[in-house]
Specification:
Layout lengths: L1 H16 L19 H6 L3 H14 L4 E7 L4 H18 L3 E7 L4 E5 L2 E5 L3 H17 L3 H10 L7 H8 L5 H9 L1 H15 L10 E4 L5 H18 L23
Parallel strand pairs: 1-2
Antiparallel strand pairs: 1-5, 3-4
Helix pairs in contact: 4-6, 4-10, 5-6, 5-8, 5-9, 6-7, 8-9
Bound molecules: 2-acetamido-2-deoxy-beta-D-glucopyranose (NAG) (2 copies).
The site of one 2-acetamido-2-deoxy-beta-D-glucopyranose has 7 residues, from helix 2 and helix 3.
């Protein structure tokens, strides 16, 4: 009963004050605001969450799958990941999924039941690939963390700080355990298998596939405007970000 009252009150408050009634008692990080009814109410974003959940439920299955085969220290990969792929995903994550495969032009050899990896830009790059692979296995915030690392001047040294920003409860020790242990070794081997299974095989990185397919045309379009490519390939109802609906973003917070 109390919850229902609170819900009605929140809906009303939301309709009265638009998006500006962000409650000061909100104890959740933004990524968790829509994860439950309680968090949505507490953070004053219920209306937004219900709408965004509704669009999500309509859109599952139709998402455009973008996969990036890359390596952590390749300058072209860093540029594409941070300035094209990540911002596009932020805007279009309702209609696209991203798969990151950090391996690229690396090589592997089996030695004493463990894989030994050799990377194009040396051991430092293998370390970066492995940190990112473990992150992808251990946290839902992997993509923002990886984008943060790849946009920093030092990809490896920034890792701890980037984790602290996006996933403060994730312990650096546990990442290192994965990086140095069998789990990381196994996960990296899976990246090797995925990369080696590419058809056509990759002859450079960053290498992009869209819905599992690679062609020079798709690659060129992804490199010049991934945003337009994803909007144009999405088969579901056009979303606002792609210029679809009459959704009005004009919602000002007045200076009173
Ligand atoms: C949004 O959807 C998620 C997953 O389906 C669900 O757990 C959550 O409670 C929903 N949030 C709201 C505010 O309805
Ligand atoms: C993480 O890796 C383990 C070990 O390979 C695997 O069983 C698990 O499904 C992976 N989890 C995710 C979220 O990728």
């Amino acid at each position: 009963m109390k919850a229902l009252l609170l819900l009605i009150l929140t809906v009303w408050l939301n309709s009265q004050y638009g998006g500006c009634s962000l409650s000061s008692s909100c104890s959740y990080p933004p990524s968790k605001w829509c994860s439950s009814l309680e968090s949505a109410i507490e953070c004053g974003v219920l209306k937004h969450c219900l709408q965004s959940n509704f669009t999500k439920s309509r859109q599952t299955g139709d998402s455009v799958e973008v996969a990036l085969y890359y390596e952590s220290l390749c300058p072209g990969c860093r540029l594409f990941l941070t300035e094209m792929l990540f911002p596009t995903w932020v805007l279009l994550k309702d209609i696209m999924t991203v798969t990151l495969v950090p391996y690229g032009n690396a090589q592997e050899k089996l030695h004493d039941q463990k894989y030994i990896f050799e990377c194009q830009h040396g051991e430092e790059e293998c370390f970066g690939n492995m940190i990112e692979t473990c992150l992808l296995n251990m946290t839902e915030m992997a993509f923002p963390i990886i984008a943060c690392m790849e946009s920093s001047s030092d990809v490896i040294k920034s890792a701890q700080g980037c984790i602290q920003v996006f996933s403060p409860q994730l312990r650096w020790d546990s990442i290192l355990t994965c990086v140095k242990g069998d789990v990381g070794n196994k996960l990296m081997h899976q990246n090797a298998l995925k990369t080696d299974a590419l058809n056509p095989p990759h002859d450079y990185v960053p290498w992009v596939t869209i819905n599992g397919e690679h062609s020079e045309d798709l690659q060129q379009k992804a490199m010049t405007s991934l945003f337009s490519l994803v909007c144009s390939m999405y088969k579901g109802p056009k979303i606002a970000a792609c210029g679809g609906s009459q959704k009005n973003y004009k919602n000002y917070c007045l200076n009173e």
